Amino acid sequence: MLQYFRGEGDRAVVADQEAPAPERPAIGLALGGGAARGFAHIGVIRTLVAKGLVPDVITGTSIGAVVGGCFAAGRLDGFETWGLALTRRRVLSYLDVSFTGSGLINGARLTEQLATEIGDVTIEQLPQRFAAIATEIGTGHEIWLTRGKLVEALRASYALPGIFSPVDIGGRWLMDGALVNPVPVSAARALGARLVIAVNLNADLFGRGTTIHDHGPVREAATETVKAALADGRVNAARAAKRQLLGKPGRPGLSTVMMEAFNVMQDRITRARLAGDPPDVMVSPRLAPIGLFDFHRAADAIALGAEATERAIEPLAEAMAALA
């Protein structure tokens, strides 16, 4: 940029001066829910940081809150190492089943693991503004957890109803935030982000949510066969109850039904929320091959998250330039 200064005898003197670099807009990162697919958030964050795009605001729902909270607390390395070491057997070891509480899984083992990774950190101590999204039982209120112990906030945000027990924080019983705000773009904006990057873990599930216009019963014979087997003792009541819980080929179990119902609801809510408050940049990892319970596939999810973020770098640069 050329600036003109007045010299002797009012003679104009021209001085070359570099134009000041435009101020970078405050970046918000809204991390969505998606169970095991949430390891993709690690790849997203690693790629953004490598490009010098460290978020100023982080909001997360469910697994998005967990990954975002670990990053903000400076504990993402440990969380990633733990995730990469998961196997099917190790995943099962964290499922402390309970038939006396408000969920099938008590969740104490997972909480202990999180506490080991994060420590006794409070949200107020984090370098970024942070919010974990939860849902209040009874009222359906959308709760932004912005203060208090980080571990408790994360546990409340991923308390999937029926699976994990709800969490009492400040006199409110809280459960998974995906019931009200699966990809919390609105929270990131409210906390001061001028440019919001959203990560939708379920955007790649094509073909879901269509309408079947003509359908009717076609499997009465199979139902009668099962009834006959129960009647003559070939299948006892205990085995029937086990099949109901775990399912079998051709018939989903209770856990699958609950997760699929939650997934359908989350997909519909995500579409509605993002249509009303779209992010400036959307990162959509192609995670269709990774199931909600495939926690042993952390490495695949991380790689897919990094790949999706690389694709989003150009539109992100354009958005930053426009805002600057």
- Tally of DSSP helical segments: 11
Low-confidence stretches: 1-16
Q: By helix and strand content, what is the structural category?
A: alpha/beta
Strands, total number:
14
Beta-strand portion reads 15-25%
Radius of gyration: 24 Å
The whole-number mean of residue pLDDT values reads: 84
Helix content: 40-55%
Described by the principal axes of the CA atoms, the overall outline is globular
Distance N terminus to C terminus? 17 Å
Reported for the largest beta sheet, the result is:
8 strands, mixed
Succession of helices and strands: EEEHEHHHEHEEHEEEHEHHEEHEH
Protein traits:
324 residues, alpha/beta, 14 strands, 41% helix, globular, disordered N terminus
Helices and strands in order, then pairings?
Elements: E1 2-6, E2 12-16, E3 27-31, H1 40-50, E4 57-61, H2 63-72, H3 76-84, H4 88-93, E5 103-105, H5 108-118, E6 129-136, E7 142-145, H6 150-157, E8 162-164, E9 167-169, E10 172-176, H7 185-190, E11 195-199, H8 220-231, H9 237-246, E12 247-248, E13 251-252, H10 254-276, E14 281-283, H11 298-323
Parallel strand pairs: 3-4, 3-11, 4-6, 5-8, 11-14
Antiparallel strand pairs: 1-2, 6-7, 6-10, 9-10, 12-13
